[in-house]
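quick one if you have a minute, typing this from the bus. below you get a single protein, a line of residues and a line of whole numbers that encode the local backbone shape. could you go over both lines and see whether the tokens make sense for that sequence. anything you notice is useful, everything is just below.
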Amino acid sequence: MAWLYAMGPPRQLLTDAPPRPPRQPLIDALRGFALLGVFLVNLRFYSLDALLDEAAQQALRSATLDHVVRTGMGWLLDMKAVTIFSLLFGMGFAMQMERQPGLVPHLRRMGALALIGLLHATVLWWGDILLTYAVVGLLLPLFRHLGNRGLLVAGLVAALFLPPLLSPWMREWVLTLTPRTQMYGNALDALSSGTLWQAWWQNLVLGGWVRLTNWALLLFVLGRFLLGYWAGRRGLLQRPEQHLSLLWGLCVGGAVVGVVFLCIEAAAPALKAQWPLLRDGVPGYLLRVSYRVAPLALGIAIACGFALLYLRPWAERGLRVLVPAGRMTLSNYLLQSLVCVPLFAGFGLGIGPSHGLWPVLLVAAIVFPLQLWLSAWWLRRYYFGPAEWLWRSLSDGERLPMRRA
């Protein structure tokens, strides 16, 4: 880390005050809550369970338990936790533009995040989301002159309507790439029983393939960034007491809409069998749009419900335990990869997917509480998490103070 000293000496503080504006405990707690959800979802990929085909999953002794866990994650967590995470990122952009409205600080911030994400993806884990966040985040300044209504419309169009509109053209291109079963099979072999070199190389190959085939993730993230940008402008979570009716409306309305569209998605195969018109044309397009409504609506409902609960003093006392982890989200996210990749991969302990999902639940029950404790311990001594300090130092072009006086 000696190269950081080229940025100059750290800022000298006259008091033990934080070098940045005060944090928002509600937002930090919600970010910590989303971190837990993302961790649980990612554990299926860390453990290589998500790379197994259906036949291999059914052959496991724990197939019944695994099915329950996968179904529960699908209904409660998949695409919902990352929705909350993405909304908060867009909200953070709005707050950042209030403090530093210039374009250059944002570009430097996204460039530093892209560097961290690139290192994470190439060295450690193919499922990195930071690089995608940085690339999409570069587009946010293009929308800063839109009004609030324009942000809402642009966010909904990007999240719901553009991906199904582009998918017929993108599908032809995706079909020219390696099939999913072959790619997952190669990755499973290398990551579960290969050497360190084989696992690292397949990590690179799989990461590149995922980014090419999952092109709609860019629009998924952009739409949620813009909706979070709108919420940040409104001060929805910065000043929640002033927006109680809106929070209640989004919470209840999002939950109702999400459940309705989950039911539509579950019934879609039967509906298409009964009415073939739903397979193509405008009806088919609208059905594909409907698949994207539930994760967005439920993610918004959960975020607003969390905020409303946090406003209750009795609930705040318990939920505040998430605040330190939320302040160190980047460090905790990277630490999860650092712990779990060698834990499950063949070049490490090699737990792999052969034991089913009960080790996943056990790891979650051990690692995340430890992260909560470690985050609180760390922030009593330092202003930033280690990854946050690196990100901000790179963004500001100087070595920031880290240890509290």
